[in-house]
Amino acid sequence: MSDTIFNKITVLKKDLYSKLKQIMLESGWQNISSRPSTDFDVMFSNGEDGKKEIYFQIRDVATNAANSSTTFSNSNSRYFSMRLSGKYMPGSSGVSGTFEKSNDTWKLVLITYQSDISPNQPIELYYSCNKDRLIFLTDYSLSLALPSTLNYIGVPVNYADEHEWSACVFASSSIGSGRRMYVTDIKNDYSVTAPITCLTYLGLSSKNKIGDNMLMSNIIYGSTNEGLKGTIPEVFSFGSTDGLVNGDIFSEGDKLFKVFETTPGTSTVYSSFISKFIAIRIQ
Cα–Cα distance between 8 and 223 in angstroms, integer? Predict the structure, then answer.
């Protein structure tokens, strides 16, 4: 089980994007964009081991279209956008840099499954960040009846060697469609100009319990070309919805894990984490 305890703070929606950037910078990431007006924010890290090259783009723009003036922070939008851009070579100051994955489309980073969110809405933000990854979960007061959303951007735990900057992923409890996540590329196909998708798997059957013990698992991901590739750490999922309620607290010794429901009712689940229920460690 995870040794990582998620931090919890309250932040207004209008400040969420800048807060996430601040969290990353304070955790050792760099924003290496040479022209923010066109390249937006380009986050880079050498990873916890100092040997990686991790790159991705984020922008305070409320669409997955190439161009828009509508910001996430100052509108009622429930998403900003990101790209797995691959390696980025900055230009001189004020000059656009060069992206290895120049054909990637922008992907929506949702903060709730449905409903607009006003800029002044308080959000409960749970986060874990190091030089390998940013994981953040957005949660809301019960009176709003809004489901939580968890997003994961960065390097997972890999089973096989990756070349250079290939291993960065984007996984979300609101991924858009299917049981999948996005990966910068795979080792045998790193010449492609856009990221690929990998299927996600749960190492459990359809049962959640053995006796009084609740079963939960990390998510495994892979490709048809290379088989199982790695694991998404620090986030846990379940084999079914049986016996689960939003806000449940499970314990393992002195460790406490909280359960969050990420889509309302019986809505179709398009989640990298398979189940609409996920758990993170809170103590």
Answer: 34
Distance set, CA 95 to CA 69, 90, 98, 261, 267 (Å): 20, 8, 10, 44, 45
Distance CA 279, CA 6 (A): 11
d(CA 69, CA 261) in angstroms, rounded, equals 32
- 220 close to 198: Cβ distance less than 8 angstroms: no
H/E run at residue 24: helix 13-26
Alpha helix ranges (H) inside 141-200:
none
As averages over each run of 10 residues, the pLDDT of the chain (283 residues) reads 89 98 98 97 94 94 90 97 93 94 89 91 98 97 92 87 73 89 71 77 74 84 81 92 89 94 79 93 96
- The answer to whether residues 158 and 167 touch, using CB atoms and an 8 Å cutoff, is yes
What is the phi/psi pair of residue 188, to 5°?
-90, 0
